[in-house]
Amino acid sequence: MTGASWAIIVIIASLLSGSIASTYQTYRRRSHPFLLMQEVATSLSAGRTVEVPREVIERLNAAWFFPSAIEKEKLKRISQIEERVELLISHGKPLLEILRGAVESLEALSGADGDTPKVLAAASDPLSRTFFDSFVSSAALAGMLNFKPPSGNKEQKLTIFRTSENGGCYHVPLSTGPVDFGARLDSYPILDHRLKPFIATLETLDRLCLRDSFSNVADILASEISVAQSLKSDLTGIRDAQRQWDLHLYIANYGESAMLITPQATLEVWREGMRGKLEVQCDLAERVEHEGELALRSEPNGLLVPAGESREIAFITTQVQGNMEMNGVKIGGELAAKYKEGGSNARMRFTYISAGLRQRKSTKTPAVLFRESE
Fold first, then answer.
1. Hey, what CATH topology would domain 26-44+243-369 get?
2. What is the tens place of the pLDDT at every residue in 231-274?
3. Torsion angle, CA of 318/324/326/328, rounded to 10 degrees?
4. Among 21, 177, 227, 342, which lies 20 to 30 A Cα-Cα from 153?
5. Any idea of the CA torsion for 349, 351, 355, 358, to the nearest 10 degrees?
6. Is the four-CA dihedral 249, 250, 254, 256 of positive or negative sign?
């Protein structure tokens, strides 16, 4: 072998060793992420505008207990209406049964006046309920209740005081203990005026007048409960259609070079032992402190995690539940059902960029149960 050949071999060997060393150094300095799934949650954007069906608007307009709505409303408004619906159903239905029981008890008493302690006992049950006070006051203020005073000159049997407490109210001594009836009457003289006939009925314990008053309240309450029950599923559907899922992660970069998390990712949801996997596109956000509270800040250009540092991030479904599709098929309802059942697995698949032989690398988080975090 000639000297020239040896020279060429030496040059090639030098180049190869340099390349190998460079490749090794690049590999050693690669990013090395540690991933921990922290939470699976749902979120709603209160400021998002939603469409309200005409039939829902008409039912709301036919009632008085709920806020009104127009065709385009903020989701916050829908939530406020839904809260009133839940309030009426949860508190109104038990009160309705109590009112009907009081009407039956007063009806069963003999004589025009009945036995005074028994009349007071029958009236005490509904009057001792906080929701009776708020519902009657709201109905009277809305002009839905017109109490009739006791007929004739009735003897006063109950001493009721008008006090300045709670902004003006009536102090009523019941068989179950004293209660304050009405509130902020000093600010609403019209409400005070409309409640006075009912107060006069209580003072005289007029059995028949009390029966008619409670029956009137029960009829109005039953009508509003009927509207509330008809609205419940529609309002839930409007809200749920705007739901998004947030998957919160802790990510630490233990490598020697920075890593850039790309802004798009994929949520995978599946059930062990069953075919089929749901895949939903997600967008990247970072969990940051804003005005003393933790908030999610969108990262449309990706998020850089320097070497040796960590971040708390979240991937948020790009589409709301009502618009989610996979291969042209709506999947939002199925995803919501899996989340409610709680038996499916979920993980995030995303890409990050860093130094190394493979600068763009796809990775998956450990799987967790797809359900509300405890």
1. Immunoglobulin-like (2.60.40)
2. 999 999 999 999 999 999 999 998 888 999 999 999 999 998 77
3. -120
4. 177
5. 80
6. positive
**Alpha carbon distances (Å) from 100 to 92, 106, 126, 172, 291:** 12, 10, 10, 21, 51
The structure's pTM equals 0.78
Determine the Cα–Cα distance for residues 308 and 165; give it in Å rounded to an integer: 61
Cα dihedral across residues 291, 292, 296, 298: positive or negative = positive
Find out whether 364 and 347 touch, Cβ atoms under 8 Å: yes
In three-state form (DSSP H/G/I as H, E/B as E, the rest C), the secondary structure along the chain is CCHHHHHHHHHHHHHHHHHHHHHHHHHHCCCCEEEEEEEEEEECCCCCEEECCHHHHHHHHHCCCCCCCCCEEEHHHHHHHHHHHHHHHHHHHHHHHHHHHHHHHHHHCCCCCCCHHHHHHHHHHHHCCHHHHHHHHHHHHCCCCCCCCCCCCCCCCCCCEEECHHHCEEEEEECCEEEEECCCCCCCHHHHHHHHHHHHHHHHCCHHHHHHHHHHHHHHHHHHHHHHHHHHHHHHHHHHCCCEEEEEEEEEECCCCCEEEEEEEEEEEECCCCCCEEEEEEEEEEEEEECCEEEEEECCCCEEECCCCEEEEEEEECCCHHHCEECCEECHHHHHHHHHHCCCEEEEEEEEEECCCCCEEEEECCCEECCCCC
Evaluate whether 136 touches 214 at the Cβ level (below 8 Å): no
Which tens digits make up the pLDDT trace of 169-198? 999 999 889 999 999 999 999 999 999 999
Q: With contact defined as beta carbons under 8 Å apart, do 43 and 56 qualify?
A: no
